[in-house]
Amino acid sequence: MKRNPIETYEFWFLVGSQFLYGQETLDEVARHAQLMVDGLNASGNLPCKVIYKATLKTPDGIEDCMREANYEKSCAGIITWMHTFSPSKMWINGFSLLQKPYCHLHTQFNRMIPDKEIDMDFMNLNQSAHGDREHAFIGARMRLARKIITGFWEDADVQQNLGIWMRSAIGAIESRKLKVMRFGDNMRNVAVTEGDKVEVQIKLGWQVNTWGVGDLIKEIESVSDADVEAQMASYRQKYEFSTDDLETVRYQAKEEVAMRNFFEREGISAFSNTFEDLQEMRQLPGLASQDLMQEGYGYGGEGDWKVSAMTSLVKRMTEGMGGGTTFMEDYTYHMEKGNELSLGAHMLEVCPSVSTEKAKIEVHPLGIGGKEPPARLVFEGHPGKAVLASLIDMGGRLRLIVGEIEAVKPIYKMPNLPVARVMWRPEPDLYQAAHLWMLAGGAHHAVLSYDATPQMLEDWCEIMDIEFVHINKDTTVSSMKQQLFLSDLAWKLK
Ligand code: MN
């Protein structure tokens, strides 16, 4: 997949001050800000670079800076901090213009109060404790979507929180660029995969459009033998062949090359298709969709373009983290008392990024769709903490539901199961989690990610101004009912 790595984004560190303290103090502020930025960049805890942009001292200067941040494509967000005191009415006009994600880092240049040296000069320079409160008031007063991070800037947890927020901010920027290609419509009569594509573009920026399956078939027919062989060589390098039916695998290679060509031409990063609308395609793309997902493309089955777009976005937000992210479906349960588990799978399309073993290429018949048996990748998802995220359209607003899970090594080999599988224990437990998920209206499809955290997704929702629902070990049915009832009222008033 051709795109710049996320580390090419930068975040602007904006320090607020005023002319009250004289040039010497302002020079000191700038010097300290640069030291902090250098320290943050050297920490290894941030996915992108922080740039010390300016010490802002006037309303006009702040306004110009916000305009520039909006305009500059490489700027994914701003981080503000008040070393001294910056009267926050100065920030109102600038903040009214700001369209980029915003984080207020409440910290202080020095960790300790210097017992012997502290005097009024020191106090004049080191006023974050109250300077940042004045700054935060205007954020609250203007109801700005903002992230507040508090703590000492050299501490790893503060840096990690900043790093996670950067990923949320990148998600917000990338969301506005996201294009989804739909082959065919949604599966007939399914409700949760539907949604308001106009609303989604207004809120999230997603461009969701349909292309004819016939156009894809033409593209498949025009793939050269050399391109098919190159794709086969790539499969041989990445996966283990557990089939002799190379013709079938070759057809998947052809589908993959065709889709990738199509996507690159149209600037697509997520796609959906449906087994109900394959026309003259010989196989439902299995291996092809799985390998494209592994490259970073989002995928959604049965026309589920929302889960496809979210899969693509979460992959982008978590780039370089290595735990894996995939399209997923709660498929069947293991209801053994005391060891209740969910088995996640799909008819074919699970991304091999969630496996630490080499995936196997196998060919098996598909029970539905009436096409040739497709080649697919079969593997197990690895153990570890993960999240499931489901974006639904509530009619008038979007809601993201995020549940925490603990993936386990599948307890059985399941030798006759011809698809990739992930097994997990949801928080607080299978029955409670399922109850909560269904109360909130979560789909059967979800994004499963070992890298995204609930915080990352919550902050993304806040930036995008959509509802966030979190299911974790402390969530109860009555608290969830209360939350959903109140948020329904609140979002109607908004
Ligand atoms: Mn499905």
The fraction of residues assigned to DSSP E strands is 15-25%
Query: Rg, please?
Result: 25 Å
Largest sheet: 6 strands, antiparallel, barrel
| Heteromolecules bound | manganese (II) ion
Tally of helical runs: 15
Helix content: 25-40%
Structural class of the secondary structure composition?
Answer: alpha/beta
What is the quaternary state of this protein? single chain
Give me the count of strands: 19
Descriptive notes:
This protein is an alpha/beta fold. It has two domains: 6-175, 3-Layer(aba) Sandwich (Rossmann fold); 179-493, no CATH class. It has helices at residues 23-42, 59-71, 92-97, 120-125, 128-141, 156-175, 197-204, 213-221, 225-238, 246-266, 287-295, 305-317, 430-440, 454-464, 477-493; strands spanning 10-16, 49-56, 75-82, 102-106, 147-150, 179-183, 207-211, 240-241, 270-272, 298-300, 325-334, 341-344, 360-363, 375-378, 384-393, 398-408, 422-426, 445-449, 467-471. The strands form four sheets. Strands 11-12-17-16-15-18 form a six-stranded antiparallel barrel. The model has no long low-confidence stretch (mean pLDDT 97). Manganese (II) ion binds at residues 301-302, 329, 346, 445.
